[in-house]
Input
Amino acid sequence: MKIINNILYITIPEMVECGVSENYLSKAKSIGAKCWSFISDPDDKRKVLIEFEKLKDEYKTRLEARFGSPYEYMAKMPIRNLVKWDNSAEEFFLRYRYDENKPLPIEHVKKYTTAANWLNMFKALNQDKKALKKLLNLSIEQFYVHALEIIKADNIGLPTSYRRLLAARNEYESKGYVCLIDWRFGNKLASKVNDELSESTLLEMISHPNQYDDVFIAQQYNLWAKLQSSLGQQTYRKKEALVIMYREGNAELKNRFLPQVKGFRPTAPLYMVESDDNHLDLLFIDPDDGTPHKHFHKYKAIVVIDSFNDYVLGYAYAETLSDELVKAAYLNAMYHIRSLTGRWHLPHETKTDRWSIKSLKPFYESLGNYMDTPVGSKNRGYIENFFGSPHWKRCLKIGANNYTGNNMTAKFRGVNTEVLNRNKKDYPTIGDEAVVQVENFFHRLRFMPQSNGISKHDQWMAAFKALPMEDKRIINDEQFLLKFGIEHNTNERGIRITNRGVEPQINNVRYSYTLKVDSLMEYVGKPVSVIYDPFDMSRVLITDFEKVRLMGFEARLQSRAMKDASTDSRIYLNAALNEKRNDVDFITAKQTRRQEVLQSKSIDAETLLQAGVMVKEIRQQAEQRLLSRTIDGSITEDDLYDQM
Output
């Protein structure tokens, strides 16, 4: 949503969220449907806005059901945009332990991190009060009124009164993240109506997609307006920019009238990364394909680049695209970054196309700042230009007898198609041969010198080394697995923790993991999921996403024979035995404490257990005496029943 000249506009993605088809909106815009009022976003000509007040009641109702009052929602949006995710806060709450090494539930980690994000914003504005006027054009009082309403509506987890919120902010400034953990875990009317009506009528006639000639338009307009003046070509040329989109299409408007939005690349590595799919222009043979198309198989690659210099951070390829292929490309990028820097680093911002956006958007948002790409946008960043660059094509065609060249419809194909056809029997085959060629291609993209004599790898590394530490988004293994790991769970009941740790069977391979915990006893029997990294199975995350969240490490087997033992193995065995002794000492200490508590209240557990219970031998003796007295007549059965 956006307000321009006191008029509220809705974006295309927001209308789509309310159930309106993108294709329907695109068609309505192209034909100039009168029930919709479209404009281009003044700040980004690629985006299209729709005037809210001119919508049908049906669409207004949908918007209000989804966002509430659009005016109230819009009034508070700039405040929401000031809140930034604090990666350090997330790490702090993930590491926090209470009650003998219990972690915080994931939902509370998110809750406290969100609260920290808001308090960081309040803290920054408190230090620079002029920023409010500059950023939002609000007084302090107005700002806090809106902020408190958002906190209450979004259930942020902060006080909803001004006085208590300021107290919470002051406490946060002095104590930091730990203070967030609760007790359980320690508008102008138009003039000249007639003139505007006449002009609108004329321009709508000119903008008709059938592109009627000027003479015909003048005749028809004069019939309507009962004017004797003649309207010629000059009238159309003066207003051409207003009607060309409807008369000739979006492309003509963009090419001839819309100003080019100029920008510059990110100034440092990992400030922005982009990903997109590319059908690699290499043909391969599939020996198992019995059709005439066996020589025309291609790989589709998901490529992740750093927009700083188009450096390929990661990639994954297959014959078909899938969500898993996208995630694999980003996982590959994380491993490549770690191989270069020694640490896991996240990007500050991610840009993609809209392919499978509904299912992949949460994944993109978990990596860094992510904004939806405008519908129909063709120039969102740099990756599409990179795919068509000389460096890309040069690296692709080197030594390739299966390079297809540019598109078949291109004026310059870039390859001799006759030779290409003659070579088809010698194309590499799908599988190992294809993998070698594709891997060499991506290696050249990174390390082959460019026209300036420097490789993209060397450029990237030099810039990364100069990057200040505060501009690097470093994460640990636990955070890495939460974002990139694959969940393994055998059934709804989960995998049980035993005194051997966790022993899942993943992809038909049995693994055994010991848990990084002071005492294993309290976790034995708990059902958990195993979050694993397919590239490194030596460590996993063991969690039930609530109370249990532990790192597991590949179990180290101990020699049963003394001859096979080594110094290192003996040290590890001693540590394991010490852990067992510590557990026994822990159990003994707990029993001693229980006995002290009972003694202080003069309670004997043994006496409580025996109360009202007769020992077997005593009961038998009593029965014999009673039986003998009934036999000798000293007591009758009636007497016995009277006593009972």
Observations:
- The first strand starts at residue 2 and ends at 4.
- Residues 187-194, 227-235 have pLDDT under 50 and may be disordered.
- The radius of gyration is 37 Å.
- Residues 516 and 551 are 6 Å apart (CA to CA).
